[in-house]
Amino acid sequence: MGNIVLFMHSSLDGFAAGTQGELNWVHVDEEIFDYIGKRITKTNTALYGRVTFEMMESYWPTAADQPGASKHDREHAAWYASARKVVLSNTLDETALKNTTVIGKDYATAIRKLKNETTGEILLFGSPTTAHALFAENLIDDCWLFVNPVLLGEGIPVFRDLKEKQLLKLLQTHVFSSGVVCLHHELLHENNQ
User: Rounded to two decimals, what is the model's pTM?
Assistant: First the structure.
């Protein structure tokens, strides 16, 4: 059975994006890319909300072909091309998309089925609205939060609409030279406490 692993940047005050979805405060560099890249290569399934998926689709399919493409761009573009992509959306048409499944209505049942059919992990990249929906259904198993040394004051929260208290177990921390801190937590569902 597959686990859903959330990868998300966060401000120190708990926001995943600014009020308009802006991410210009997120710090990324080769050190962070290398760290995440090693982790991502351990799976071949990615989960996105529609907005994040459209952002990924506008960049990754041709990123490696651009003049001066970085090592990260070449590596992640290759992974993205081969990865199974699952998108939560009520508007996308999957027939026009390569290696992509679109889940609309009754997403909770479809995600549970996806977890049962997947060996290994399913990486949820960003997608705060999707993360909120999956947290509400108790479908996320691990969180990798990349806490950036910035206070936004307002924005789209990392966590929202939790139905009840959620216990977590800290598994690992990693401090980057930029001051970004990766916190890896396992969510303690009733069946794994």
Answer: 0.89
> How many degrees, rounded to 5, is the angle at CA 89 between CA 84 and CA 91?
120
Class of domain 27-141+151-172+183-192: alpha beta
Neighbouring residues of 31: CB distance < 8 A, sequence distance ≥ 6:
176, 177, 178
Count, residues in the chain: 193
Q: How far is CA 191 from CA 64, 131, 138, 141, 187, in A?
A: 42, 21, 11, 11, 11
pLDDT mean values, one per 10 residues, the chain (193 residues): 93 96 93 91 90 92 92 91 93 90 91 91 91 91 97 95 86 98 91 53
